[in-house]
Design brief:
With 643 residues, the protein is an alpha+beta fold. It has four domains: 3-200, no CATH class; 220-355, Immunoglobulin-like; 359-485, Immunoglobulin-like, CATH 2.60.40; 495-632, Immunoglobulin-like. The two termini are 36 Å apart. It binds copper (II) ion. The chain crosses the membrane at residues 12-30, 37-65, 71-92, 104-127, 133-154.
Length: 643
């Protein structure tokens, strides 16, 4: 079973356990001894089962079980044992002899076990990893508080106290005092926990004191093309516009230059790319982020971190050298969960200086407007022709927040590049599905055969035929059952760029959902190590460091992880080393229950966003910064790099 399977099973067992303890407690309170006995037996049986599911999950990593091992199971075992000791015998007696009643203590201990089971589950779902003293204390205090309140209610409702049938007048008095004491404990514990969390937050600031500081405002790109290169100048004006899709459907969009996707930027290696961004009427403001392109930090387009946001009437000029070959894209990084979805994106392709002749080279960004998937600017069938024998390259770009599954039928093909970087000896493949992560790019190449080739992405079909006669539409081939290509085992290994065992810095990012403060309000956030942006501590590196990340997904959502400014080399997934071509990516899909390790060399000084590229997730907290020591930003605020 997969880790996700164990996560779901463990959630299920935990939920059943809560239900069984509550059933036992409530049935005992209602003098349904038989039902209470059955529920108690179920609850007891579920404890070893729960220990088993937790043990299996532990095999996938401590991150998945920490709060369960340190809190949930101990409090459940302790309260469950107490319940069995106090309520077990009276329940059995009451079942045989309906005239006897389970004493108040029995009911209270059974319900306390229920509260403990519930607190454990709530800690998993709301707090996650890592468990802090503060949250553990709050959980325990809440269980105690609930137990005391229950004791008051139960003793008042006429259940005999454990000592017999004495009226519980004094007991009520003691209980009131206990309630106050425990309520005070909860408040103190909560404040203490929050205070500790705040005081532990490192103060990585925007204003430098050290004389060797470097401002991101000074980390700008080249001003001139490389030898033999020219300057590719573009003006992109952000503006709202009605975009008409090929099917005739009108989309109320935010655009660059009135079109979505925005103008394709095409350059040749060594060119200088100079783009002036103007904002006509996008009130939220805009920027340009060059996704996957390792520009200097000051060109990275993150508002409040690498530049001020560009508001209506303003402009910002980006300049960088087109040194990296391949397929990339650009998009706004301001409120990007809205802006990119509405159309503020376009493609960036850098060709080698010597280009292949007579090649069909199609750049195909996939984007969803509403419910409509658009490939390039087409939302229905698209036809192209290429003579048999023509080399064809399809540049597939996922600009959506979720992965896309693509298939190519009618020819064997190779995935020659991932995220703009060439693979080493990629083999010919056919009848496999390609899963393209959010933000990711695949270059697919083949030689045009004598019969049509069909690319299918959801319900969009792109057909390439050797001549117009063959381009007649027919039913798209059924590719649903094709297995998925695993890029970690595709292509041939090559000597590594570095020895990742000798990393200078290692960071673990545990991705989850939980209660955290987002935009100043508590929210059920997408979290990293139990926190949400901007409270997640910066990752500090020094120039030249070899850095490794372990990215763990405890949640039930896929998180396409994206580090700005650096490609990362995939080392392993779920403990299995990558065995194919060296795989350099800027976005990798961490699916529920997966653990990825990646490495990179810190060679691009700056302060870089490191976030989930499901942009709504990033907006809901799943975003942090990787900061080089000594680099500061003059644009910073508490929400630096927002969205
Ligand atoms: Cu995500």
């Amino acid at each position: 079973m997969t880790t996700l399977g164990w996560i779901l099973l463990d959630h299920g067992v935990a939920l059943l356990s809560v239900a069984a303890w509550f059933a036992a407690g409530v049935a005992a309170a209602l003098r349904q001894a038989r039902l209470a006995c059955i529920a108690l037996v179920v609850a007891i049986v579920l404890i070893p089962l729960r220990i088993f599911t937790v043990a299996m999950l532990a095999g996938a990593g401590w991150w998945y079980v920490q709060e369960k091992v340190l809190l949930s199971l101990p409090i459940l075992a302790a309260s469950g044992l107490a319940a069995v000791v106090v309520a077990g015998r009276p329940l059995v007696t009451a079942r045989r002899d309906p005239s006897t009643v389970v004493p108040a203590g029995g009911v209270v201990t059974l319900l306390t076990a229920a509260y403990a089971a519930l607190a454990g589950l709530a800690t998993t779902l709301l707090v996650g990893y890592p468990l802090t003293w503060g949250s553990a204390m709050i959980s325990i205090a809440l269980v105690c508080l609930a137990a005391v309140l229950t004791a008051r209610v139960v003793t008042r409702s006429g259940h005999p106290s454990s000592d017999g049938d004495r009226p519980a007048v004094g007991g009520a008095e003691v209980s009131r005092r206990s309630v106050l004491r425990i309520a005070g404990g909860v408040v103190a514990g909560g404040l203490g926990g929050a205070g500790t969390a705040v005081s532990l937050r490192p103060d990585v600031g925007h204003t430098g004191h050290s004389p060797s500081t470097l401002s991101v405002a000074d980390l700008r790109g080249a001003r001139a093309p490389g030898p033999g290169g020219t300057t590719v100048r573009r003006v992109l004006t952000a503006q709202s516009a009605t975009v008409r899709l090929s099917s005739g459907q009108a989309v109320d969009a935010w655009t660059y230059n009135g079109q979505a996707p925005g103008p394709a930027i095409v350059a040749t290696q060594g060119d200088l790319i100079e783009v002036t961004l103007r904002n006509k009427d996008i009130e939220d403001g805009v920027t340009l982020h060059w996704h996957g392109y390792d520009v200097a930090c000051g060109e990275d387009g993150v508002p409040g971190l690498t530049q001020p946001v560009v508001t209506p009437g303003e402009e910002f000029r980006y300049r960088f050298r087109a040194d990296q070959l391949g397929t990339y894209w650009y998009h706004t990084h301001q409120a990007s969960h809205i802006g990119v979805r509405k159309g503020l994106y376009g493609t960036l392709v850098v060709h080698p200086r010597v280009r292949q002749e007579r090649q069909l080279d199609l750049t195909l960004p996939l984007h969803t407007f509403g419910d409509t998937l658009v490939v390039a600017d087409q939302d229905g069938h698209t036809d192209h022709t290429a003579e048999a024998g023509t080399p064809v390259r399809l540049r597939l770009i996922n600009t959506d927040p979720d992965p896309h599954r693509l298939t190519l039928s009618g020819t064997p093909f190779r995935v020659t590049a991932v995220d703009g970087r060439d693979l080493n000896h990629p083999g010919e493949i056919s009848e496999v599905g390609l899963r393209l992560p959010a933000g990711g790019r695949y270059d697919v190449e083949f030689t045009m055969p004598h019969s049509p080739v069909v690319l299918v992405a959801d319900d969009v079909v792109l057909r390439i035929a050797p001549d117009r006669a063959a381009a007649r539409p027919e039913a798209a081939p059924d590719t649903a059952g094709w297995p998925e290509l695993d890029l970690l085992h595709y292509g041939e290994p090559a000597p590594a760029a570095f020895d990742a065992r000798k990393a200078d810095r290692h960071f673990t990012l545990v991705l989850d959902r939980g209660v955290a403060v987002v935009d100043g309000r508590p929210a059920y956030a997408h979290t990293v190590n139990g926190r949400a942006h901007p409270s997640i501590p910066d990752q500090l590196v020094a120039e030249g460091d070899l850095v490794t990340f372990t990215v763990v997904n405890r949640s039930l959502d896929t998180h396409p992880w994206h580090l700005h400014g650096h490609p990362v080399l995939v080392l392993s997934r779920d403990g299995v080393p990558a065995a194919g071509s060296p795989l350099w990516v800027d976005t990798f899909d961490v699916r529920p229950g997966q653990v990825w390790t990646v490495a990179f060399r810190a060679t691009n000084p700056g302060i870089w966003m490191n976030h989930c590229h499901n942009l709504p997730h990033a907006h809901e907290g799943m975003m942090l910064r990787l900061a080089y020591t000594g680099v500061t930003t003059p644009y910073g605020d508490a929400h630096a790099g927002h969205g």
